[in-house]
Amino acid sequence: MKRADVCLLLAFISPSAALGGQAVRAIKLEPELTVPIGANHLWSDWVSPAANGDVVVVQPNTESVRVFGAGGALRATVGAKGDALGSFMRIGDAGWLADTLWIGDRTLNRLTLIAPTLKPLRTIPTGLDAILASGDPAPVPSATGPNQPRVVGLYPGGSLLLYAYIAPRASVPTGWNRLAGSTYAYVQLSSKTGVVEHVAAWVPTVAACNVHPSPEIQLTPPFCPAEVHAESADGRIIAVAVPAVAGPDSGAFRLVLIGTRGDTLVNARFPFTAVPISQQALDSAVARIPGISRSAALTEFFKTYRPGVYPPLMSAVVGRDSSVWIEQRAQGAKRWIVINKRGVQTAAATVPLNVDIKSADATHVWAVSKADDGALSVIRYRIRE
């Protein structure tokens, strides 16, 4: 039996209940549709419902997307490897502009627009060629290759929302106002001129996540309390949540929601429950770091490295109703809290460890489940009283 086929509990709470410890009203998150995919046919980072109820799944292993009807039957497969209209060389992010699906191609540096009828309409050049050539934003080589900007949103006027690495020593245009220590930013780019229009939001870099045990070594140590962030595919909302595990704000994270022109919509703090790290778990994670047995600098650094607690935040999703879902660390489960666009916590959900929430709104949740045998399924849940 797939563990995700059982009902999950979703507790809706008022702001006063969250602060005052009052009883919460529990409802069921009831599986309404399960679409078995198989172990090798799903890349689960992008699963999203269409306006007509279809479920769209991005599959980079075949450079295509699969579209399942509201009843779960495979409706169509769109795309193949290639550079013709409707084909992709290296499929990237995807999203919606009203009822039109857009799909990025990270090799051809373009977006393909797909009509509700699933007919490819046209392509939009992203302008990333100019960015990569000019270094603005400045991608730099990393251990896994060039850190290329990602197209993560498409605005109604045709501008693009990028998530881009900005080199720490790079000069940035006037008005960018880089945050101290930050190396990533959401930026708006004109798809017509290839000109960076402005920074929508900086993503702060947690200091503990970038360490230099020696001049030639930089690494992110295990269990770093990193920020999480997400965005709506139309660029209307960018959510950045930064946890504090030490200092006066310890035990809470700050959520900032940013609008289309870089305006702050919400800036609020929410509590989390820290989960201690055992010494055994820390030792095991450190032992898996490549080259640690041959590096005196790394060995010396990890003698005193004591993170204490697991990273409190795991991921984030911006819902179709502009709600923000934040995944928190929990014992033996995944705990999500739901915050509305006004910055008020409205719900808390606990789901099994094998379930990853990918999209949500006021009535439904879409998730990916991984069974014990590795088989993957897309599941649509209905939120019920």
Task: Describe this entry's structure for a reader.
The chain has 385 residues and is mostly beta strands. It is 8% helix and 44% strand. The chain is built from four helices and 29 strands. The protein has helices at 15-20, 128-134, 279-287, 296-303; strands at 8-12, 25-36, 47-49, 55-59, 64-68, 74-78, 91-97, 100-105, 110-114, 120-125, 141-142, 145-146, 150-154, 160-165, 184-189, 196-203, 211-214, 217-219, 228-231, 238-244, 252-258, 264-271, 313-318, 324-330, 333-339, 345-351, 355-360, 364-370, 376-384. The strands form seven sheets. It has a nine-stranded antiparallel sheet, with no helix packed on it. A four-stranded antiparallel sheet has the order 3-4-5-6, with no helix packed on it. A hairpin with a 2-residue loop joins strand 7 and strand 8. It is globular and about 60 Å long. The two termini are 25 Å apart.
Mean pLDDT across every amino acid position? 80
* Helix and strand composition category: mainly beta
How far apart the termini lie comes to: 25 Å
Work out the helix count: 4
Strand order of the largest sheet: 23-24-25-26-1-2-29-28-27
Tell me how many strands there are: 29
Jot down its keywords.
8% helix, four-stranded antiparallel β-sheet, disordered N terminus, 385 residues, 4 helices, nine-stranded antiparallel β-sheet, mainly beta
What is this structure, in a nutshell?
With 385 residues, the chain is mainly beta. The chain has helices spanning 15-20, 128-134, 279-287, 296-303, and strands at 8-12, 25-36, 47-49, 55-59, 64-68, 74-78, 91-97, 100-105, 110-114, 120-125, 141-142, 145-146, 150-154, 160-165, 184-189, 196-203, 211-214, 217-219, 228-231, 238-244, 252-258, 264-271, 313-318, 324-330, 333-339, 345-351, 355-360, 364-370, 376-384.
